[in-house]
Amino acid sequence: MTTQITIRRPDDWHVHLRDGALLKGVVPFTARQFARAIVMPNLSPPMTDIAGVNAYRERIIAALPEGSDFTPLMTLYLTDSTDADEVERGFAQGAFVAAKLYPAHATTGSAHGVTAIANVMPVLERMQTIGMPLLIHGEVTDADVDIFDREAVFIERTLAPLVHQLSDLKVVFEHITTEEAAAFVESAGPQVAATITPQHLHINRNAMLVGGIRPHAYCLPVAKREKHRLALRKAATSGSTKYFLGTDTAPHAQHLKEASCGCAGIFNAPFALESYVQVFDDEGALDRFEAFASLNGPRFYGLPLNEGTVTLERGPVNVPAVVDANGTAIVPFHAGETLGWRLVA
Ligand code: NCD
Ligand code: ZN
Fold this sequence. Notes:
By secondary structure, the protein is α/β, with parallel strands linked by helices. The protein has helices at residues 20-33, 50-63, 84-93, 121-130, 150-165, 179-187, 198-202, 206-209, 226-236, 254-257, 272-282, 289-301, and strands at 4-8, 12-15, 36-39, 71-77, 98-101, 134-136, 171-173, 192-196, 243-245, 309-318, 323-325, 328-330, 338-343. It has a single domain, classed as Metal-dependent hydrolases (TIM Barrel), CATH 3.20.20.140. It binds N-carbamoyl-L-aspartate and zinc ion (ZN). N-carbamoyl-L-aspartate is lined by residues 16, 42, 107-109, 137, 219-220, 248, 250, 264-265.
């Protein structure tokens, strides 16, 4: 039995670092595990221009623990009025490496998102020309579409036509949650990839609803039926270069989740690698973990691989019931569980 695994330093291709005191409280968890992370722009107000993104990057760097060499990779938040020249300028300057498309009102912090793809078509055409990745929250928001169907319907109505129309546009279908999404990614060309979160590999919707309502298992896109979880595990561990690690760690204060209208988001940053490696171990695919965690992402984005390595070893690690993030109590993913692998410091 393998008791230890050493891989090239990994990156997290989807994180929410928030801002202010909470940023300072959560960024050390991501910086401890990952060399780089794609930072989501859904702040309030959202990061919609170069100046705002640059200032946010500086706040992230200032919030890092002493001696950290973590690099935030920034993203731009697309709105109906995003200017294609601003996008091209910011990408060329290295202000951001990608742009994020939230359908308006799909999730936390998406109120200023895009109301119709047609409104951003000039921007997407420009991104295709300059080779800039588009990161997509893939859910429709129509009131008449059931929340468990919103990803599959998005593929049909929005994503498939978009990928067909802009066939060279680099697209990351973020945090996929269904077998339909995995099938779509698999059948698309090499310009289409996807991130997969640890929670969607570990839990199905029963975790949220059986024996009482469990707000800490609630995120968007919401966890689906077991067959979807199994399809995602198969995809992540398949060895396909189209899938890579993106935790979608999304911290919310405990009291804002344990509420009559609790926030969507799972805070998985503290034990993200431990959580993922367990899945690869269970699937007999430890030899494929490095590609998922450390190789496929940078290759898709056209960024260099990290130098250095991290080591995980078999052995119990207890996940606390609550984490103190600089004064904010947050319940982490796997709270109260014992995981079977630990990151060697
Ligand atoms: C994210 C958040 O809280 O910012 N929430 C979530 O459930 N994943 C937003 C998002 O990525 O959908
Ligand atoms: Zn997210």
